[in-house]
Amino acid sequence: MAQVNPLSNPKGVKLLCELCQHPAYIQCQDCKVTYYCNEDHQQADWASIHEKICQLLIPLRTPVPFFTSAEERSHCTEQLIQRKKHLIDITTNEAQRMLYEGKHDDVIPAASHSLSLVIDVYGLNSVELVPIYLILAEANIGLGQLTLAEEYLSQAYWTVLKTTDCSNTIRSKLHRNLGLLYSAKGEFDESLRHLANDVFFSSTALGTDHIHTSGGYFHMANIFYWQHKMDIANSLYSQVVDIWYSHLKKLVDVKIKASLRTGPGWSDDFEQESLDENEEAEALQILRAICDIREQAPKKDGTKMVKILHALTMLYFLSMDFQKAHELGKKLLHTIEQIPDEEALEDVSPLIKLIESKLASK
């Protein structure tokens, strides 16, 4: 990430900072096609996304050679568009992952890259802009910059209104972000209205028991929790845990069956039948938060603690963090012993054995 003075570039070329679009004085020495106004912006961009896409930017920002035939020009243009779409996927996924991890500062550079690429490929009025607006809005909510978040949400809202064939999944995400905005502003009734719309559109698209629908229930539960309406909050938290528990159990059962087929040294493709990075990050965010709430309750419900600990143990196992899965597994077994619940013990035993075998094989 060394820096050089870009003044040796041809005169008349206007160099702008990658992050703020102000005049740039620093050049990335690795790709030599990215510029910054100061070292802070260079370091922020590097930590967020530039390290991952540095070399991928070179063909996008290098002048295209002159082609004599229309066929060659068309092929070159298509290749360029495909490269940009690939970068959109990378930057959007990275921004979403960091958002789930609560790294709101790091989200902004990655999402800004994605936004400029989407505008370039699809245009200023395209519905493809909406997911990026929503990521930027949620990051700014997390940073407490509510006015900026509201601006992004307004852009997303009007784009959705003008798009007749906008998917219910996008509508769901829009209402979820509006719910988060009003929650941050302390307008809980308005927040709950939008979160109810989130659940409605997500349920229509994916089903009431889908893991993506559970996010709406989770955020609604948080509002009732803050309002000390614990009966409603606990009911919604339990629904969220049930959805994730069922989903994770299906994935883990596939691994357990594979291990029984292949023995202690099982070596099936671990990535098959698993969570993607964003689902994993969202699950960790939601389930850890609920686990903390359950543990801090004045009167702990042993059965509910068993289920949330089992879900987290499965989640860490699927993410291949076997050490953390082992720690949670021991805590799970201890909680089961306190109830006691022979059926629960029998249910978790194959998973615990599998975790121990993975640790032993390292």
Automatic annotation (TrEMBL):
<keyword id="KW-0862">Zinc</keyword>
<keyword id="KW-0479">Metal-binding</keyword>
<feature type="domain" description="MYND-type">
    <location>
        <begin position="17"/>
        <end position="54"/>
    </location>
</feature>
<dbReference type="Pfam" id="PF01753">
    <property type="entry name" value="zf-MYND"/>
</dbReference>
<dbReference type="InterPro" id="IPR002893">
    <property type="entry name" value="Znf_MYND"/>
</dbReference>
<dbReference type="InterPro" id="IPR011990">
    <property type="entry name" value="TPR-like_helical_dom_sf"/>
</dbReference>
<protein>
    <submittedName>
        <fullName>Zinc finger MYND domain-containing 12</fullName>
    </submittedName>
</protein>
<dbReference type="InterPro" id="IPR053248">
    <property type="entry name" value="Zinc_finger_MYND_domain"/>
</dbReference>
<keyword id="KW-0863">Zinc-finger</keyword>
<dbReference type="GO" id="GO:0008270">
    <property type="term" value="F:zinc ion binding"/>
</dbReference>
